[in-house]
Amino acid sequence: MAIRTTATGLGLWALVHTLRSGVAQPGVALAFGALIAVGELARQGLAGAHRAPEERARAPLGAAGALAYALLGEVAGVPATHGPAQALVVAGAAGLVGLVPRPGRGPAGDRLARHLLTCGFAATCVQPLHAAGPLASWAGRGHVPPLVLLGLLALTALGDAVLAAAFARARSGRPYGALLRGELRASGGIGPAIGATGVVIALATAVAGLWALPVFSLPLLLTQCALRRCAAARATCRQTIVSLARATEIAGHTPPGHAHRVAALSRAVGGELGLREPDLDLLEYAALMHDIGQLSLVDPVPSGATAPLPPAEQRRIALLGGAVVRQTGVPAEVAVIVERQADPYREQPVTARIVRTVNAYDDWAGRTAGPGGAPWALERLRLAVGRDFETGVVEALARVLARGGRTT
After folding, report:
1. How many C-beta neighbours within 10 Å does residue 132 have?
2. How far are the Cα atoms of 312, 376, 383 from residue 363, in angstroms, in the given order?
């Protein structure tokens, strides 16, 4: 990918330039490098608690440390002389810690490339101004430096979101616009805290020296630890839901793997339609438990396929499933999706429409042996558009399948 190649070339150039000119203020570089590395090490635990590599396992402390070093102009009143190239080397070397447990060109490598490019942009914008002296002269004129830094932070955050969406587009093939909107929404949460902490660390280091690093990075480190615990709680909740979803398979009500196939494909279709990450989580949980109402049936449905059943029977099973889901402690929205999956599609929320469509596809595809089952099931969905299924959801499913989704 061109972005990754650009980041690699920029990092190599910065390394060669730094080795030729020598490391300026090595103690300062080591302190900031250690700060970034600590953030990356904390991120590893956060990423491990997440469901999948695609989920955003951010390293707020590492990002804030890299940004602070890029913006750094003084250390305890002494001018900083590291320049943009050394800022890139420090951010890149410390960021490599994040690649240790999973080397290669996956999401961790993409994240390092994003950090190199965004850090290089910030350092290139600010370091020459520090060297020339304009920022020091502006400091006595009021609010120009804060406005400059705020504008730079906004551009840096926008650039990072653009790059993150581009990498996600290359991995998943999902529409770039939806991915960019998701990244911008995600940046609106922890993003301002990262930017503010980076600026505060840079300004505090200029006055108090390196003692400012542990003092002003502690709140963000605690936030990162809290994110890690929240991620672990979400992972535990998902494992509980997965176990409940397997109950219908163990009881012989549904074919093996049906709930997982419907959940994975529903999440992909939801992403194709531009749903937000929280909505995708609810959609996945509902898809995993969409057949749990069959546990209340005296006579199992043949092959567990509810799509061929009469609408009244589908609605009864859906209501039974919603009643079970409400007893599990998952968000109430999940129960609503399960209950409404059998309603007329025009009355359903989009999440219930997705579960209804994907469940029917998997039921019908499983009824026909061989590779022809999937095209036949998709064609049957298209023939029922306008009566039982929404056009947009069916076509989103078709695009997901065409990109390599489940085909049998």
Report:
1. 10
2. 18, 12, 16
Question: How do residues 190-216 score in pLDDT, each as one tens digit?
Answer: 778 888 888 889 888 988 889 889 888
Q: What is the DSSP string of 110-132?
A: HHHHHHHHHHHHHHHHHHHHHHH
Query: Number of C-alpha atoms within 13 angstroms, CB side, residue 4?
Result: 15
Distance between CA 219 and CA 204 in Å, rounded? Answer: 15
- 31: Cβ–Cβ under 8 A, 6 or more apart, which residues? 210, 213
Amino acid 149 reads: L
Q: How far apart are CA 10 and CA 87, in angstroms?
A: 12
Q: How far apart are CA 266 and CA 255, in angstroms?
A: 17
CA gap 155, 53 in Å, rounded: 26
Q: Give the DSSP H/E element, type plus range, for residue 17.
A: helix 2-21
Contact 206, 303 (CB under 8 A): no
83: left (phi over 0), alpha (psi -120 to 50) or beta: left
pLDDT > 90: percent of the chain: 13
Under DSSP, the state recorded for 80 is: P
Of 36, 9, 132, 29, the C-alpha closest to 82 is 29
Token output for 39: 């953030």
pTM: 0.70
Rounded-to-integer distance, Cα 99 and Cα 104, Å: 7
Non-local CB neighbours of 125 within 8 Å, separated by 6+ positions: 152
* CA–CA distance, 90 with 111 (Å, rounded to integer): 15
145's tokens: 């430096």
For residue 28, the Cα-to-chain-centroid distance in whole angstroms is 32
Each residue's pLDDT tens digit, 18-69: 999 989 999 999 999 998 888 887 776 554 444 433 334 456 888 888 889 9
- Span 361-369, average pLDDT: 76
CA 133, distance to chain mean position in Å, is 40
- Sign of the Cα torsion 253, 258, 264, 269 reads negative
Contact 287, 321 (CB under 8 A): no
Nearest to 364 by CA among 229, 284, 255: 255
φ, ψ dihedrals at 55, nearest 5°: -70, 150
